[in-house]
């Protein structure tokens, strides 16, 4: 092992050790207000996933993973239409599937969660296709990884890549990359909102987002993983090419190497220029 690797393992070990006992979290959950157990970003599901992956790699205790998963499965579970990979039934499904691995553990629970996540996905797909039929630009939460269909796709691809809903979802992602009937100079995934996902007077024409959490990189990753795993859907490779053609346009170079901006504004799109001072943090 090299020194940086050992250092990273040490940091992970210290974090996991501090989060070993879920009873401490139950007694005094972090943050203000209601903390949902079924949250990957601020709840027990995310901590359970940490312990699950550590146990799977031989660096952690499976007992800690199962203890946290039990907490993640407690409390009210939302399967509302706005549930997503990081919150609610999809988050718990993703974590439970990771815990089950190749075993037959949690079969009944996963079946119920699968049904809920599939229903959520199909509701979101219907809304997305209706938006495209109107030739309107999307909001980030329609397709991104954290709140959108790319995140739901990440679950379906890991859980049941041959399921019909996976093909439906990938067909939508392909359509997301196709020019809107209204035409225009902007890519069809150019969002109508600010980088925080909300409408803003500072972004009256929205923005283009290249990021993995909230941008088109999430759709690119999902399509690419599907192709690599031989999950066949018409137009997937062409969609990948369309996304890459746009991201290639925004590739920057300086003395430190190649980089991309996280977002592109309408003025930058018109000028085809990114100021070097706007290089984002590595992420």
Walk me through this protein's architecture.
- With 283 residues, this protein is mainly alpha-helical.
- The chain is 52% helix and 4% strand.
- It has a two-stranded antiparallel sheet with strand order 1-4. Strands 2-3 form a two-stranded antiparallel sheet.
- A hairpin with a 2-residue loop joins β2 and β3.
- α3 packs parallel to α5.
- The chain is globular and about 55 Å long.
Helix content: 40-55%
- Span between N and C termini? 25 Å
By secondary-structure content and strand pairing, the structural class works out as mainly alpha
Strand order of the largest sheet: 1-4
Number of β-strand runs: 4
Question: Per DSSP, what share of the residues sits in E-state strands of 2 or more residues?
Answer: under 5%
Q: Rg from C-alpha positions? A: 20 Å
Largest sheet entry: 2 strands, antiparallel
SSE sequence, one letter per element: HHHHHHHHHEHHEEEH
Shape: globular
Mean pLDDT: 93
Uncertain spans, ≥5 residues at pLDDT below 50?
none
Number of helices: 12
Which key terms come to mind for this protein?
mainly alpha; two-stranded antiparallel sheet; single chain; globular; 283 residues
Quick gist of this model?
The chain is mainly α and about 280 residues long. It has 12 helices and 4 strands.
Topology, element by element:
Blueprint: H1 3-18, H2 22-27, H3 44-56, H4 62-72, H5 89-100, H6 107-133, H7 140-143, H8 149-159, H9 164-176, E1 208-209, H10 216-228, H11 236-249, E2 252-254, E3 257-259, E4 263-264, H12 266-271
């Amino acid at each position: 092992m090299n020194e940086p690797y050992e250092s990273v393992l040490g940091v992970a070990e210290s974090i996991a050790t501090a989060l070993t006992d879920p009873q401490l979290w139950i007694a005094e959950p972090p943050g203000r207000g209601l903390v949902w157990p079924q949250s990957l970003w601020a709840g027990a599901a995310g901590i359970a996933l940490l312990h699950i992956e550590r146990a799977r790699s031989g660096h952690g205790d499976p007992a800690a993973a199962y203890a946290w998963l039990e907490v993640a499965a407690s409390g009210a579970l939302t399967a509302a239409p706005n549930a997503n990979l990081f919150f609610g039934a999809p988050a718990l499904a993703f974590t439970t599937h990771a815990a089950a691995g190749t075993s037959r553990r949690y079969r009944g629970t996963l079946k119920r969660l699968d049904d809920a996540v599939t229903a959520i996905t199909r509701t979101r797909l219907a809304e997305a296709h209706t938006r495209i039929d109107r030739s309107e630009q999307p909001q980030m939460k329609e397709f991104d990884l954290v709140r959108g269909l790319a995140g739901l796709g990440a679950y379906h691809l890991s859980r049941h890549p041959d399921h019909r809903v996976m093909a439906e979802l990938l067909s939508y992602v392909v359509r997301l990359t196709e020019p809107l009937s209204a035409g225009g100079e902007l890519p069809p995934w150019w969002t109508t909102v600010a980088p925080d996902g909300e409408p803003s007077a500072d972004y009256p024409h929205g923005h283009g987002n290249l990021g993995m959490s909230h941008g088109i990189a999430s759709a690119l990753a999902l399509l690419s993983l599907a192709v690599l795993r031989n999950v066949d859907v018409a137009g997937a490779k062409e969609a990948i090419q369309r996304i890459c053609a746009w991201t290639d346009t925004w590739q920057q170079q300086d003395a430190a190497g190649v980089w991309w901006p996280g977002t592109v504004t309408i003025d930058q799109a018109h000028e085809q220029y990114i100021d070097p001072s706007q290089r984002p943090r590595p992420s």
